[in-house]
Design goal:
Layout lengths: L20 H10 L24 H14 L20 H11 L12 H18 L3 E3 L5 H18 L6 E5 L5 H8 L3 E5 L9 H7 L4 E7 L11 H10 L3 E5 L19 E3 L2 H4 L14 E3 L11 E4 L4 E4 L16 H37 L16 E4 L10 H10 L6 E2 L8 E4 L7 H20 L1 H5 L12 H6 L10
Parallel strand pairs: 2-3, 2-4, 4-5, 5-6
Antiparallel strand pairs: 1-7, 6-7, 8-9, 10-12, 11-12
Bound molecules: pyridoxal-5'-phosphate.
The site of pyridoxal-5'-phosphate has 15 residues, from helix 5.
Length: 488
């Protein structure tokens, strides 16, 4: 263990660009945080009145709260683009058993098991995705995208290449253009074709000597697998650019195709989607990034390595973009994902994508005569986007339908996203739902469609059974009350 009064020797190289962990260490030594001197007055408490409650009162409070909450353990939760699939209990147990055992400042020789877990997950992800290396540090999909973009920036800077444009199709996940912009690139958005695929002619026009990268979300937010990937890779590489793959929707293709084999130079994953790490409420998640050989030097430090005898953290990587998360990221997510992969094995992982695809296409076949959907004949991967445009004739919106679903005891889908579909209802049944659960969801949607025609008022004023009705989200966001005060 490190001496408490000195910054640990083996951590001295873990300096984030523009940030020095030694400052935090020095500050915490002097106890300045305790005095809260650094906090602005308007966010410090003026009075301290903490309720005094007995244990049963606290337990009842939280149990009652949990009863009015809706989660994946309560019912089907087909939030499009979120892969809200069932999170098995055994991975939770694995993480719970591990979490109290190690301290982040422990010497590497005493945490060989934890390092091995991280190393093994990295190796599995390399195999699953066809990449040459992975970093497990980013805490979310969007942070993974940003990290990959920062790596591309560093790569071109090292080559003294001034490329500064990243091409993003309008079917990409909304975080893609933001990640590229945050890394300092100019974003060039291109329109997809009528079916939702990349329009090769528009792409060719957008590509130039300024093109640094192309970001592809595949399967896309429309649930489509991009059919011209090899040609896209040829166009981008031919112009000197690199390819990024947003693999957050990997549950639609896992075990079938690998981004690395399709020509991608780097990619991100969402362990909190594909690999059954729970998510929602802002995390914590894990968004590992994979890279091909030419980008390995730029990965965040430390990387997790094995020298044939022991596992170790490599901080000595001069071209690294620095750290993007404290210590090694959300380590508990890593344990859960590794358990999930080991339990499934390669055959099981293939079945994940088979069931994910089967379930969404079954849902399309059940709903396409009731709810508008573009090109229902094109097979979907993990999800499908319907539209409530037709219902607008009866003054019923996607929001009304979503709210009415709550009355029937299921969770609404994602609505109004992707933006390319008007009145979007984006539904991802996921691979963990049974035929009965999907039938039930479709029956409810068909019933709501009938109600919309015969009794629109009941849909427009939904929900009727929940503890709160429709909330004014904008007001709540602008007038946020974050502090408990006595009497509330
Ligand atoms: C395709 C895709 N990319 C990126 C993200 C962003 O991931 P996160 O919410 O973990 O930042 C998501 C989120 O669900 C996604 O579906």
């Amino acid at each position: 263990m490190a001496n408490n009064n000195e910054f640990p020797e083996n951590k001295k190289s873990c300096l984030v660009k523009n940030f020095d962990f030694r400052l935090i260490f020095e500050k915490s030594k002097k106890n300045t945080f305790k005095k809260c001197n650094d906090l602005p007055e308007n966010i410090t408490r003026s009075t301290l009145s903490i309720p005094e409650l007995s244990e049963p009162e606290v337990i009842r409070h939280y149990t009652n709260l949990s009863k009015i909450n809706f989660g994946i353990d309560t019912g089907m939760y087909p939030l499009g683009s979120c892969t809200m699939k069932y999170n098995p209990r055994f991975t939770e147990h694995m993480a719970a058993n591990e979490q109290n055992m190690v301290h982040p400042y422990q010497d590497e020789s005493t945490i060989q098991g934890s390092l091995e877990i991280m190393y093994r997950l990295k190796k599995h992800l390399i195999n699953i995705c066809g990449m040459d290396d992975f970093s497990l540090q980013p805490a979310a999909g969007a942070q993974g995208e940003f990290t990959a973009m920062a790596i591309l920036k560093a790569y071109f800077e090292r080559k003294n290449d001034k490329r500064n444009e990243v091409i993003v199709p309008d079917s990409a996940h909304g975080t893609n253009p933001k990640s590229a912009a945050m890394a300092g690139f100019d974003v060039v958005e291109i329109k997809s074709d009528e079916k939702g695929y990349i329009d090769l002619e528009i792409l060719k026009e957008a590509v130039s000597e300024k093109t640094a990268a192309f970001m592809l979300t595949s399967p896309s937010t429309l649930g489509l697998f991009e059919k011209n990937i090899l040609e896209i890779a040829r166009i981008i590489h031919g112009a000197g650019g690199l390819l990024f793959y947003d693999g957050a929707n990997l549950n639609g293709i896992i075990g079938k195709v690998r981004p690395g084999d399709m020509g991608f130079d780097c990619m991100s994953l969402n362990l909190h989607k594909t690999f059954a790490v729970p998510h929602g409420g802002g995390g914590p998640g894990c968004g590992p990034i994979g890279v091909k050989k030419h980008l390995v030097d730029f990965l965040p430090v430390p990387t997790i390595e094995y020298d044939g005898e022991k596992y170790y953290l490599d901080h000595d990587r001069p071209d690294s973009i620095g750290k993007v998360h404290g210590f090694n990221g959300n380590y508990l997510s890593v344990i859960k994902a590794l358990g999930y992969i080991k339990r499934h094995g390669s055959v099981g992982l293939k079945r994940i994508s088979e069931f994910s695809v089967l379930n969404s296409n079954y849902m399309v076949s059940r709903l396409s005569s009731t709810y508008e959907i573009k090109n229902p004949d094109i097979p979907r991967k993990h999800e499908a986007v319907f539209s409530a445009s037709r219902h607008k004739n009866n003054d019923i919106t996607a929001l009304d339908i979503a709210k009415r679903l709550i009355d029937y005891g299921v969770h609404p889908p994602t609505i109004y996203f992707p933006l390319v579909i008007k009145e979007a209802l984006m539904i991802e049944p996921t691979e963990t739902e049974s035929k009965e659960a999907i039938d039930n969801y479709c029956d409810i949607l068909i019933r709501i469609n009938d109600e919309a025609a015969k009794d629109p008022e009941v849909v427009k004023t939904a929900p009727h059974t929940s503890i709160v009705g429709r909330l004014d989200d904008v007001f709540a966001a602008r007038k946020m009350i974050l502090r408990w005060s006595p009497g509330e």
